[in-house]
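Z., the sequence and structure:
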Amino acid sequence: MRYSGVMAMTARSALLGKLAVLQGLDVGVEPLDFHLAVLSSLRQLGVAKQIDARIPPPEPGPQLAIAAALGLPEPKPGPSAGQCAEAMLLNLMSGRVALYQMAGWLQRLPCRLFWGADICAEQFTDDRLARTLDALHEAGLDSLYSEFFAQLVRVHDVPTDRVHSDGSTLSLQGAYELGEDCEGPIPRFGYSKNNHRGLQLVLGNTVQQHGIPVVSRLYDGNTSDQVIYRDHLARLADGLCKPEDTTFVGDCKVCDAETLGALRSRKFHVVTLLPKTFSAHRQLLERALSKGSPADWPLLLERTAKTSDEEPLVYRGVALSMRMPLQEIAIRKNGKKEVLKAWTQNWSAVVVHSSQLAEVHLSAQNKAIEKERKALQSELRPIEKMRFATREKAEGAREPCEARIGKRVDTWDVLFEVVEEKKKLPRGKPGRPRTGEAAPEGIEYRVKATLRADEEGRREAARHHGLFILVCSRKVNDQHSASHVLGIYREQTEVEAGFRWLKAPLQMTPVLLHTPTRIAALGLLFSMALGLYRTLQMRVRRALAQSGHFVVGHHNKPTQQPSLEFIMTKFQHLTHVLVRVESEQVGQTRNLREEHRELLRLLGLPDDLYDAPQTLHAL
């Protein structure tokens, strides 16, 4: 992903080293890039200290006894579990490589500057990193992430008034012959969202409105979203101080009586999409359409077109009330559900019309109409080719065909009729016919089918184009408007963006680990990396919005919404040049500009961090 900059920096370092030898100087050139900022952020959060407080240092190996017997200095202890976690998080933020490639990847970086003179890249072996993953699992993955998220809230003021939840499959390769009682998530066969069946685990993420994971766990393969929602719900209820101030946002899979009842019984508020299968869905649409055309509904949101080819995105909607059925259940030891309580509440329903979604629905309808036309023509062609000697026989063939097709035609009317046609008959005697002799003729019958567009049916279907329904446990009023409900739901894309980052090429897949416990521990590190990535991005955008300032973004256009990925590219080619003269060392960062110091301030880091990289050890 970002290896080209590191490789170019390595080549440049080698060239400068050769020039230094020719001049009789001892010069080292070390790439810094954005790695220094990532490590500084991790130490600001105390990630390594948090992990090392739970995981004791590894026991001395046989090398200690061998060194004592030979009178040699004691071998260096190597990186701690916290330092190994820092190295893996640094790798995840910079473009992932497999654990067995970590030592080679770290050799390009200034490890002694990052972790001290006693730590070198060769010590980050795949065995050492794998044992760190085992130790993380034993220390408790959920509690480790809870402490990490608490630090994010404390250091960066991360809000938690809105949370979004979703699940996604993680494909695995290889053989996992595991018993049902083994620790960690169990790989199972299941279908992904693109309908591909394979061995998988399920990743469940509940994030706040900026996409920062609040709860993140790996589950057994083929785990349903409802199970993930309820598990996360219990963890959220324990971790948040005031659930009544938190809104849980989800897609239509949240909208069932059990899940909604569990949320409301714990005092969470809810915003979710009402599925079409819900009994009140069509009734709510008709009530909204009775108030007038969607074009006349109040404006909820409008986004101008980004290019001349696009149409502006317009949302309009009306707010209605409805009775929402809720249930509180308990699962007994035998696995059966028992309904403890069933009740209904007054909820708000916002029927929304999206101009963009209406275009999608119209395009889908036109494709369905054309597809049905071709299917009907293909099915009718055989009977239209048939000829019958009597009208009764033609009628006998028409009636079952008309009954069969009429039951399933949606957008076309098929008109059947029996028509009479003349046909020429062979002469009754051989030879040429005489001049003026009329050719003998006969009568035959055939079934004629005519397709006619069902305009009324199409108009009826088009009435619902672009419509969807959001339901909310709060009453829609001036303080909590329909526009606010729509804005909350649109934040659901932050969850999907987090999954796209986790499942990007060379990120979370392929998984090259053999045990579920190590996969789960790696999942913890991915959640931490995603949390740090989103937090730093949130901090920059929030600071720019509060100050009214802009940074130069893509194509040199000013923006207040830069991605952290783009900010990371600004730090490419920053290097630390170290000149050793006799017993003294002088270091300087090359290519450092005021733009970098401004970005560091926006990130909440010391603006002189790259001026004196050795201060990293003091953090």
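The chain has a mean pLDDT of 84. The chain is about 40% helix and 25% strand.

Let me know what you think.
H.
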